[in-house]
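To: structure desk
From: M.T.
Subject: fold request, one chain
Message: Could you run this one when you get a chance? Sequence is below, nothing fancy, just the single chain.
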Amino acid sequence: MEFALSPDQRALQDSVRRSLERACPLERVRAVAATDEPLDRAVWQTLCEIGVPALLVPEAHGGLGLSLLDAALVAEELGRHVAPVPFLGSAVLAPLALREAGSTAQQAEWLPRLARGDCIAGVAIAERVAGARDGAGVQAGDGRVNGSALFVLDAAQADVFIVADRSGGLHLVAADAPGLQRAALRSIDATRPLGELAFDNVPAQALPGATPVTLARLRSAAWALLAADTLGASWAMIDQAVAYAKERRQFGRVIGSFQAVKHLCAEMAAGLEPGRALVWYAAHAFDALPGEAELLSAHAKAHLSETGTFVARTATEVHGGMGITDLLGLHFWFKRIGFNRQVLGGPERLRQHAAQLQDFEARKETT
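Reply: Done. Structure tokens follow.
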């Protein structure tokens, strides 16, 4: 059996790659990261023009109705170019939440706007996905929400938020709702800011179809997409390390001719390439094999987190002292990989979750 991308999927990935090569060079990333506006509207508009926000929106609401695997291919390119755009929350998790749990009226109001890129949706699910910190958490009742949410994805310019409460329900909250306060949270990745939300009796619309299963689906999608983003960022670092090794000269010869450097580059490629199949299959399972998606996505994010960290460190070492300077900008990819590793659960937590799904911990106790 051959598992490969379709011609349409390859065309989609190529289109996104070419668009980002034109619209999102490193100089632009560097400029955006140095500002207080952590979203490049021009880059986002370029992606809107080729339909990226519409990927997971059903055709009936003006979208493309594609699969999570298609979204993973886009995420890989966004990681490769460290693009400062609101993809994971606004173009993936919010459409999925509305598609799977929203009312007919909620879908009709928000899905077409998300598909066009007319609005941006922030997503606050970290407390339910990765555990609450500092007492954070949201309580819901009588059409109101109270509490706080940390590590909110795509929060900075959001027009609406998808908020998970402590019971696993999901709610729509307008960004300008009375009683809502939001603040930026610093993270190592300046291209994808996080936010903090504080709710004081804030009006909210419950997504009527939301259950803990819905939230688990969102978690699986997020894990798979973060793994795909890390895959793209890691390959970018490998490509830069190989290119540098071919031109940097030491002792009268290019450093790529030294066996030690060859081994470093080979080890990076050999370690990362198997992760591509893992990421693709996890994203494929989300739609085709939903019963396996949670386990596969946990494995994908955990594995790519570890492999990506190895690639980030080794690629920097290949560059020598230049690797830690701002001149080459390797730190943008390094930090992207580090962000992906920890957000919504680090590899240790995900491996524990995978063990629980397979009853490994229970078996260990009885042996």
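Reply (cont.): The chain has three domains: 7-116, 121-206, 212-366. Let me know if you need anything else for the meeting.
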